[in-house]
Amino acid sequence: MDERRWRRHGRGQAQASLLPLRTPTRPSRTTLSNTVSCCYCDYKISALNTSLYHFGRKQAKLLKIWFSIGVGFSLTALLGVTLILVWELGNILHLFHGSSDLSSSLLFGFSPQVYGSRLSVADAGYLLLSTLISVSVHEFGHSIAAASEGIPTEYIAIFLAVLFPGAVVALNYELLEELQPFTALRVYCAGVWHNAVCCAVCALVLFLLPLILSPFYIHGESPMVLDVPSASPLSGYLSPGDAIVSLDGKRIHNDQEWMETTVLIDEQTLQSSNLSKSSEGLATVHQMKGYCVPTSMIEESNEMLFIENQSACPDDLTEFVAVQCFNSSKSDNVNIEDGISQRQRRHCLNAKDVVKLNKCGDGWVTEITKGSSCLCSQEEYCLNPVPLPGSIWVEITFASPYSPECLQLGRNSFPASGASDFSEHKCGGTFVFVGDLISMAHSVRLTAYQPRWGFSFSAHLPNILEKSLMYTFHVSLTLALLNSLPVYFLDGESILEVALCHFTSLSPRKRAKVMRACLLGGTLISTLAFMRIFINFW
Questions:
Q1: Distance between CA atoms of 276 and 321, rounded to whole angstroms?
Q2: Could you tell me which residue ranges the Peptidase M50 domain spans (predicted)?
Q3: pTM of the entire predicted model
Q4: How many helices (H) and strands (E) does the chain have?
Q5: Angle between helices 60-92 and 121-148 (to 10 degrees)
Q6: Cβ atoms within 10 Å of 11's Cβ, excluding its own
Q7: CA distance 330 to 288
Q8: How far is CA 3 from CA 9, 192, 199, 346, 451, in A?
């Protein structure tokens, strides 16, 4: 294998740098040997050398301006991450009272959504692809910057170290050594600068994606179901292609609102749990979800319980109790005060019939009752479903826009009128979920995009594009921040050394001492911060 040598910019010194350099003064045309071992393998590419060099020389004037801007950005990033390192050191020594997790995440650009421990096989594929794209953008930046300065590329190597992919560019050693400090900075900073630009491009495309795809997809009307695993509690109720219209009466427009609303309902339920426990079997109107049940339906329930002498509701029925209305003189208050037994106040009803009725109580996410908690008529009672311990009662309204019935009607949009409109045309409906709401919300895969012309594999395309762009954004951000750190074996080491060369008031010996102190401290603090993030994420 060809011998590699590394250097840092300095007079009379041959030390380490991120960029691997070789001694020939012109591109080598010999056959490159690839490396294969149990923990590391690489594949060296030289076919692009001539194209990259010609492009860099042809556009040298514009590229020098472009990479000069990158020098300013990279030095600013180096200063920024250095300040974060100082803050992180203060947190480690308990000198500051700040969020150490936040500073550590900013230091490396880590996101639990991308680097979390619960990565699926598909997410791992996105992460691998985005890593290859990000490191390629990084190394091509170095190569093009060097070409604009007249330095040819020896080869570009794609490697896999253990399970982590990467890339590296090998440049001519002697030519790079002759560069002036600021010129060398353009080459060293090119990788960080290109990763930052890649982040900006990904963010811009993500922002404009609904507009770009608007001729083919409807965005932000209702989240569409892409997949319902068999283990999901919603399996059998929702199918791929269904659109979730509302949750407890609140209109849902995208997958983010779906998660936010489930969290809101879960928090409201926890807050009202103490009131439910202190009500001695009677539900209070505060933070309770009630239904206006006709007297005739309640009488049928009581007759059934009396005939069958049951102490619990059958499996196909749900237990309801009367909601006590403090601002009403309705007859249910009178019955309660008359001392009706707990068994007589309990009613077993069919949930499918009850959800079609008007609502009462103020436990709904939206103000369905419009001010009054006891909106039921004199012939109705406000009944509240009795939740099981650790379970939450929610109504999910959905539509099936790609079902044959809806396609015949030509329904392309979903009104906010609720389940009745969908059930009437057999385009959807409403069902009740009782259980762990957060787990339920995570058990289905949704997208904010709906195809305009039928449900097919094309429905997955926006989700694939969104995830690819999101992962590439985060991985590029991580690479930019990591290579801005003043640590050994990364771009930050070379950038810091060349930047110190501009401080002519320092002697070479003092610059070397400052360099070693910065690198040693930066590497130590970065390692501690990385370990903290690793423990928190996994």
A1: 12
A2: 127-512
A3: 0.77
A4: 19, 16
A5: 130
A6: 7
A7: 18
A8: 20, 27, 35, 84, 55
Q: Strands 21-22 and 164-172, how do they pair?
A: parallel
Q: What is the pLDDT along the chain (538 residues), one digit of tens a residue?
A: 333 333 344 433 333 334 444 334 444 444 567 777 777 888 888 888 899 999 999 999 999 999 999 999 999 999 998 888 888 777 777 776 655 555 555 556 656 555 555 677 888 889 889 988 999 999 999 999 999 999 998 888 888 777 677 778 888 777 888 889 899 999 999 999 999 999 999 999 999 999 999 999 999 999 999 999 988 989 888 989 999 999 988 899 999 999 999 998 888 777 766 555 555 444 444 457 788 888 888 777 665 554 555 556 777 778 888 776 544 444 444 344 443 444 446 778 888 788 888 888 776 766 444 444 567 787 888 888 877 777 788 889 999 888 777 766 665 455 444 444 554 556 788 888 888 888 899 999 999 999 988 777 788 999 999 999 999 999 999 999 989 999 998 899 989 989 998 888 888 899 999 999 999 998 998 888 777 777 765 5
Describe the crossing of helices 190-212 and 60-92 by its angle, rounded to 10 degrees: 100
Catalytic option among 3, 88, 139, 178: 139
Q: At what angle do helices 60-92 and 100-108 cross, to 10 degrees?
A: 160
Contact in structure between 498 and 181 (CB atoms under 8 Å): yes
Residue 367 among the catalytic residues: no
**Do residues 191 and 141 make contact, with C-beta atoms less than 8 angstroms apart?**
yes
Residue 347 CA to residue 322 CA, distance in Å, equals: 9
Give 3-state DSSP helix, strand, coil % of the chain, rounded to 5.
Answer: 50, 20, 35
